Amino acid sequence: MQLRYSFRLYPNGPQRAALAQAFGCARVVFNDALRARKDAHEQGRSYPKIGDLSKQVITEAKRTPERAWLAEVSAVVLQQSLRDLDTAYSNFFASMHGTRKGPKIAEPRFKSRKDNRHSIRFTANARWKIAPGGDLSLPKIGDVRVKWSRALPSVPSTVTVVKDAAGRYFASFVVETAPRTLPGVEPVVGIDLGLGHFAVLSDGTKISAPRFLRRAERKLKREQRRLSRKTKGSNNRDKARIKVARAHSQVADARREFHHQLSTRIIRENQAVAVEDLAVRGLARTRMAKSVHDAGWSAFVAMLEYKAALHGRQFFRIGRFEPTSQVCSACGVKDGPKPLHIRVWTCAACETVLDRDINAAVNVAKAARLAVSACGAQVRPVLVPAQRGEAGTHRDGQTTVVGTPAH
To answer: Which of 115, 202, 385, 401 could form a disulfide with 190 if both were Cys (CB 3.0 to 4.6 A apart)?
Structure first.
């Protein structure tokens, strides 16, 4: 199983300049190759293959005065930029032809030097290594200091250096590791996600919603107002933009840490986990959009999925149209839908007093037990998706790194 580990980098001044040059060269190669493909399409010719593009925009371009500076960075970085473009086109065509699941993907666009996120990738051919002292040795960049929070389980195959919008640097490693099966336990838990409480478990546990964005909203608004007053193109505006990005990154890091801690605890304590498949996109178009995005249900469920696969647990999704809030968890009688303001009611059949959220979580857990015992087909296992977000580490040693499946 492939996992991705991300660690904080602390490059010095010359190393930051070398990384900026590498980011820029990778961007130029990507844009030159994209322009070559667009020109071929406009002229009715077939798309040039990646080998021809490599010869045109890298090998031959280095011999010209306009692109001679491409030779100052690692050639692997430039080749990987071409592979990124090839992958983007493959995903675009697969989405256009309907062979790729999920939302439609737009055609690759030109990268701008004003983009707030930059990345370059080194493969084994680049001969990068982890130095004996713990620094990350990158070709034509130097030995960069790394804040290690854990040991890598195996030798990494690639490393991606990322600079985010807040100006932080990360090294993301892809490693191959065997599943780490946890000791078997009996409980099967159902989870009902919500806004009043982030999650309600079938055992009656209610986890409060942290509301990280709501709590930081006042600071975010203040920094955004200061940014709007700065002159466009000025250094002060760039400094204000970084402050806004750092404020948002603090919210995102806190939310991700909360998701990781809660998902790990649930996976460790239960043999099977079931959640209801929520229509997050639909809810994100309502007046509750900000609260829905603040909760981050999709990221949390994705963590449960890959951690269940990693630790030998079972994970199930309940169809969003299952009447989990309409069925009495005690007697199984369905008494119809209820308005959202009704949180507690009494079952007309068995006179059991039911909490709306706990009742839904218990019904989700019952569906999971049916799936575990192979006695029903209400739920089914799903494939483990790749994690998009990558955790990082803080300089003070408090880690937020958690292994995630690689793309």
So the answer is: 202
pLDDT tens per residue across span 255-264: 999 999 999 9
pLDDT of residue 342 exceeding 80, the answer is yes
Task: Find the mean pLDDT for residues 112-131.
Answer: 92
User: What global pTM score does this model have?
Assistant: 0.83
Pick from 294, 189, 287, 221: nearest CA to 251: 294
Give residue 374's pLDDT: 52
Q: Which residue among 84, 164, 223, 357 is the active-site one?
A: 357
The reply to whether 72 belongs to the active site is: no
Length of the chain in terms of residues written: 407
| 42 has catalytic annotation | no
DSSP 3-state assignment of 60? coil
pLDDT one-digit tens code per residue, 201-225: 988 899 999 999 999 999 999 999 9
HEC secondary structure over 340-384: CCCCEEECCCCCCEEEHHHHHHHHHHHHHHHHHCCCCCCEECCCC
The phi and psi torsions of 340 (rounded to 5 degrees) equal: -65, -25
The catalytically annotated residue of 276, 294, 305, 390 is 276
Q: What is the pLDDT of residue 159?
A: 95
Cβ within 8 Å of residue 296, ≥6 positions away: 255, 259
Cβ atoms of 274 and 378 closer than 8 Å:
no
Which residue of the set 32, 164, 192, 257 is catalytic? 192
Most trustworthy range by pLDDT among 132-141, 315-324, 393-402: 132-141
Q: How far apart are CA 79 and CA 121, in angstroms?
A: 9
- Neighbouring C-beta atoms of residue 386, cutoff 10 Å: 12
Residue 396 known to be catalytic: no
